[in-house]
Amino acid sequence: MDYNFNEIEPKWQQYWRDQKTYHVENNSEKPHYYVLDMFPYPSGAGLHVGHPLGYIASDIYARYKRLQGFNVLHPMGYDAYGLPAEQYAIQTGQHPAKTTEQNIRRYREQLDKIGFSFDWDREVRTCDPEYYKWTQWTFLQLYNHYYDNEQGKARPISELVAKLEKGEQRTESGKSWGEMTEKEQQDYLMNYRLAYLADIPVNWCAELGTVLANDEVVNGLSVRGGYPVERKLMRQWSLRITAYAQRLVDGLEEVDWSESLKEIQRNWIGRSEGAAVWFPLDVKSNENVLPGAQAYMQQVNPQPVPSFEIFTTRPDTIFGVTFMVLCPEHELIDQITTPEQKAEVEAYVTWAKNRSERERQAEVKKVSGVFTGAYAINPLTEEKIPIWVSEYVLAGYGTGAIMAVPAHDSRDFAFARHFNLPIRQVVSAEKDVVSDPATWTESLDAKSGWSVNSGFVTGMKVKEAMAAVIDKIEKMGIGHRTVNYRLRDAIFSRQRYWGEPFPIYYKDGIATPIPEESLPLLLPEISEYKPTATGEPPLGHADNWAWDEEKCQVVNKSLIDGKKVFPLELSTMPGFAGSSGYYLRYMDPHNDKEYFSKEAVGYWRNVDLYVGGAEHASGHLIYARFWNKFLHDIGLSVVEEPFQKLVNQGMIQGRTSFVFRSKEDKNLFISKNLIKNPDDVSPIRVDINIVDNDILDTERFRQWRPEFADARFELEDGKYVCGWEIEKMSKTYYNVQNPDDLVARYGADTLRMYEMFLGPVEQSKPWDTKGIEGVFRFFKKFWRLFHDSDNTLCVSDEAPSNAELKVLHQTIKKVTEDIERFSFNTSVSTFMICTNELATLKCNKRTVLEPLTILIAPFAPHIAEELWHLLGNGETVCNAQWPKFNEKFLVEESFKYPVSFNGKMRFTMELPVDCTQEDAVAAVKASPEAQKWMAGKEPKKIIFVPKRIINIVC
RNA sequence: GCGGAUGUGGCGUAAUUGGUAGCCGCGCUAGACUUAGGAUCUAGUUCCUCACGGAGUGGGGGUUCGAGUCCCCCCAUCCGCACCA
Predict the structure, then answer these.
(1) Around A537, how many Cα atoms within 13 Å sit in the side-chain half-sphere?
(2) In angstroms, rounded to a whole number, what is the distance separating the alpha carbons of residues A226 and A205?
(3) Which residues from 516-555 of A have any strand B atom under 7 Å from their CB?
(4) Quick check: A402 CB within 7 A of strand B?
(5) A532-555, pLDDT tens digit by residue?
(6) Which ipTM was obtained for this model?
(7) Strand B: which residues 187-246 of A lie within 7 A (CB)?
(8) Is the distance between the Cβ of A902 and the closest atom of strand B smaller than 7 Å?
(9) pTM of the model
(10) Residue by residue, what is the 3-state secondary structure of A387-410?
(11) Which residues contact A151 (CB under 8 A, 6 or more apart)?
């Protein structure tokens, strides 16, 4: 064995540990660079080959930057709170801390084998009290701040109180601040705090026994586990992330992220511009039922006549309104419904409210609704329009009421058709072309064209009409320009055990923070991880879970007296709490006085490069941006956007292998290409470990499962060929490729290089072990450049030839450019070409090979380190200097030594515009430069275009 | 339905950024050395054709001296959102 990775890799991994090679200090003369990976949740299944993909890419970049002379922060940690550990605890009674600890140890072992350059001294774990102290601390800061819309940033809640005391800010109820009771004041402030408690409709998952955030629910099912989720009104902690909606949209302009990811975030925030308009109720036609409604509406809106507020993005279509629709939850329904319609409306509202999210979403296309009997007045046309109630209007968006323009909104159109309501065209695609909407099969929704039948805006383009209508509405005092966001506040409570406790206790029903000095508030031990018999969250089982205000400490809850000792909050924080600020903590992970010091954040600023999966687009990446913006407002983080450049690595899918069992004979398995009719066989997934290049190891297959012991095979050319399909990598599909096995067989360097060679980092691709042999072969060849056939070092100090130098400098140039563009697959190719060419040239010159070990060090650190030392260098290749390429060998010298990367050489010279092929050939042959370049050889082919020659193939 | 992305040999991919396709690797074919090889080396490998030659980057059109690359229209696949007024 010549290239012995089994010996090399553990040796240098130990060396790096001993020498603390990757230890990073917070101050340096060198420029700083921060490379971060999304830290993993340590699941019980361990790593599969998909996990390290991003880590390898970021490690290459971090090592490269270090060689370029940067002080590089490249940390790793664990997102250790989470549902699986708790579910496991419920089933087995094992403390989640214990399983988490075990899983972390396994992850660390696996990571270490791959040779990453993490500074493990900076490791953080979200479940560590040293760490979650600062998660709790940030929560208290959020609780103690509100968003000041005038200054456009978070300010201490005490400033708001001061304004209220001075009477500078009116309270909505009309009571002055001084007249309010303590409880009323606190309730009032809750409407402003950035972390607040409120009764809100939440996503309740009965199976998991907890509420979930919007991004944790997909199609009415929980992301974890896939259990049904229903809407329920509950008193929950929330984060007022909506206050930052505009800044979250604007900030996307500042960062270097992929367009698709920015787009996902923009859609999630869902900014839409439009107008809010008051539609007055038609009082005359409703007089008999309206005294209550009138009083109510006069109270909630400043209009002289009782009115409904609607939101629209198409104010230009206001002349086409033929009815109004309220959501079933709308508070005015009861008041306006006429006695004749009452029974029907109530039945509908009850039915709608009891439907689950899933039912609603599954039946989106079904039209339902009911007429209230009441009418409103279109404020511009003064027409009387009927008011309906329907599910398709959502309570959570806008005002829960819409003006319906069936001609120009497909949902309104469907509704109008179903209930036979009038449809009126007010926009035409081409100027002045109108038709009878009765003949339409669909509405004209596009925000383009011209207004028709629209009073004073008739003839205007849609865009102008929008502006004109809003101006008019504002002048009339019945509405205004406004912006709406789809983004909702983030629900922050979880009815779980394994998460950060809230540093909050309840004094006379008022949420009260525990003093900052008493943090962290430790997660208590409990006997059982399930909810309590009374339906309280698991923390209800904790005996030591009450707060003694005098002693400032946690005490047994039997001591609760309502005077000094009070109950503590029973829910815990969600997963995204701990992951929202971890990148800042890495800067100063052992600081017990502050979240992180001003010096540390002043030096590192923000993450320069963040690598991770795109699945966090609408979760973690929004929450972290919000978190960071808040910390920026209160003067902690120095850059508003936390992640400057973001690279999303693609998912690695599994390639599942199948055997085909005959339906007639249970013991007969037919090779893929011998199947006559697919219906005659049933495909069965087989473990990819007993399949090699789609060829089944029939012996091992018989041993794999008892039921296959008597298997017989119909072979082609003596082989059993399996079928395959690309699926998610999962244990149950037997298609999981474990990195440890590959490291054992080929070494970490080969695994690293091969994962990069697979294709662009950003692309999702199936795992396929086939090609790894090629990379392994490359390393053996590379090793042989330095060694004789008897495996002794054979590097010479002779001066290299220009041909050799040309190969080296081309490699330096190409690899440097590739790393900068994050195109690691092409760098691997470059190394292979370089090695092949040097082997052909029989190059063994130190001045060529030594820089090469540095170039390959980011990709294959172990072999690079070994060769570096074999060449007689001390210290570590990790601190070497990245070689610079010399143009001389790329341009001038290439004339003499036309070694080329793709078998073609390029030569450019000026030619007349009307030059023919013959003229060009003659001109080339006559040119001294070209002659020099071709070095006496005859050109085989000259490809030219007017003005210049492109390729000359010798 | 809306939004985003992608489409190149048997397969993963590359293409000097608009320059005359298929680099590198896998696989395959032939050969060499070998007791043997799933080791190593050499040559070949887009397709059609014995060959000459021709076709060719999902399909169709366009711009250009020149298009895998730019523009328009389809088709297919993947991802995200989904009654958001």
Answers:
(1) 21
(2) 10
(3) none
(4) yes
(5) 888 789 999 999 999 999 999 999
(6) 0.93
(7) 214-215, 218
(8) yes
(9) 0.90
(10) EEECCCCCCCCCCCEEEECHHHCH
(11) none
